[in-house]
Design brief:
Layout: E1 2-9, E2 18-23, E3 26-31, E4 38-43, E5 49-51, E6 53-58, H1 77-87, H2 93-109, E7 112-120, H3 127-139, E8 144-150, H4 161-171, E9 175-178, H5 186-203, E10 207-211, H6 221-231, E11 238-242, H7 251-263, E12 267-269, H8 272-278, H9 294-299, E13 303-304, H10 323-333, H11 339-349, H12 351-357, E14 372-375, H13 380-386, E15 390-395, E16 398-402, E17 408-409, E18 418-419
Length: about 425
């Protein structure tokens, strides 16, 4: 007797009509036509069952603060940073916790199981860190939250930035962050990467750095990050987030840079929605859109995962907590439209992101944690096309969220009355 069986599921790897049996918090069996009984049965009816989505790059301390203290009129990265600087002195722990929990409630209904949040350490009060560490504990039963100590105003540039980041790590932040392109000079940026990687190595922590989030083709901080990763033996434990300068770099230089990143086993985190919104603001036409070289980085064997980055905050006035929206945009901007491309992008929202975050026992295999989503779609391509409804969200073997399927009611005589966008529109592959 199992606790839960999902029957007639399609899996992201192409297997169809599979049953998934769950005992306690783990997947106990995953195979066709399991004959055992269960206390609860969910019939997936040929729909896609996926591991829960993971967001490896987010700013939880800023989420849902849109309009505070005012709107970002220019829509630029720099005005967003300035607005955040104006808001920061008035932030309270209570308000930060409330907004974060509200966002997480939304994200969980969208199938989210893990989020890595960068938390600003530039204010020596560190109220942001206190709040997000509290949230991490509060949501532990239903979401894994990782906290990055992030010197938003620059590790060296911010007053007391070095000491504040060290205190944030002492308080319990999980990961060392940085933003070298926001230091005052290129040399200061390089020095910050070196210092932060050394700090991470000394403390035995991973690194996740906002790196080269700029249109400047001569920005070289990702090169330094890869080099310092190798120097300190941090291979596989370092993520370069954004990397937007790579879209403007000379192709010959990139042909040298990518092998260095491969040697460092760097994780790469583009943020499609935000990157194309904020980059290229100095261009007239042709206008660069800013996302890094996703196809080339994937082809080189690097682990590429996608982040949402922002939802309704000084940098981005949109967002829904739905990682399929992120992947949907990535398909267009990266021009990755084949079935194989879409499968790779779906992986970048799930298994690749879990690898970036170092999540243990994640996936669709016997013994993995039973953290699953049933989607109103047949396969990854259809899920991305429709930004599919998450019908059932399962955490450690228990259903924690449900959403009714999206069904249109058509009132035209002689035509089908109920329209399911996930049934009968795409060809059989």
């Amino acid at each position: 007797m199992f606790d839960l069986i999902l029957r007639h599921a399609n899996l992201p790897d192409g297997r169809r009509d599979i049953d998934i049996a769950i005992s306690g918090t783990r997947i106990a069996a995953i195979e066709p036509a399991i004959t055992a009984e269960a206390r609860e049965v969910i019939d997936a009816t040929g729909r896609l069952v996926s591991p829960q989505f993971c967001d490896p790059h987010f700013h939880m301390d800023a989420t849902l603060s849109l309009g505070l203290p005012r709107m970002n009129r220019s829509g630029t990265l720099l005005e967003g940073i300035a607005l955040w600087g104006e808001l920061r002195p008035s932030l309270t722990r209570e308000a930060l916790v409330q907004r974060a929990l509200k966002y997480i409630d939304l994200a969980v209904t969208q199938g989210m199981g893990a989020i890595r949040t960068h938390v600003d350490t530039s204010d020596p009060r560190l109220v942001t860190v206190e709040a997000m560490l509290e949230v991490r504990d509060l949501v532990k039963p239903y979401l894994d939250l990782q906290v990055v100590a992030f010197p938003q105003d620059g590790y060296f540039r911010a007053k007391d930035g070095v000491a504040s980041l060290a205190r944030a790590l002492d308080m319990g932040c999980d990961i060392v962050g940085g933003i070298p392109h926001f230091e005052r000079t290129m040399e200061a940026g390089r020095a910050s990467v070196e210092a932060l990687c050394r700090l991470a190595a000394d403390r035995g922590l991973p690194v996740d750095m906002h790196c080269d989030e700029t249109d400047d083709p001569l920005s070289r901080h990702v090169e330094t990050l890869a080099s310092e990763t190798i120097r300190h033996g941090l291979q596989g434990r370092v993520a370069g987030s954004h990397l937007t300068s790579m879209h403007s770099m000379d192709n010959y230089y990139v042909s040298k840079l990518i092998p260095l990143m491969v040697e460092a086993r760097m994780n790469v985190i583009p943020n499609p929605l935000i990157n194309i919104m904020l980059q290229g603001r100095h261009d007239t036409y042709p206008k660069r859109r800013g996302m890094t070289r996703v196809r080339e980085l994937m082809a080189a064997g690097l682990n590429v995962s996608f982040g949402h980055d922002c939802v309704m905050d000084p940098w981005y006035a949109m967002g829904s907590g739905d990682m399929l929206e992120v992947g949907h945009m990535a398909i267009h901007v990266a021009q990755m439209g084949s079935l194989a491309d879409k499968s790779a992008i779906f992986d970048a929202l799930t298994v690749n992101s879990a690898r970036t975050m170092g999540l243990e026992d994640y996936g669709l295999h016997k013994g993995c944690k039973a953290d699953l989503v049933v989607l109103q779609a047949r396969d990854p391509a259809e899920a991305l096309r429709l930004k599919a409804v998450k019908l059932h969200v399962i955490r450690r073997g228990r259903v924690i969220a449900r959403t009714a399927p999206r069904i249109g009611e058509l009132m035209i005589p002689g035509r089908e009355a109920l329209i399911d966008p996930g049934q009968g529109f795409a060809p059989e592959y």
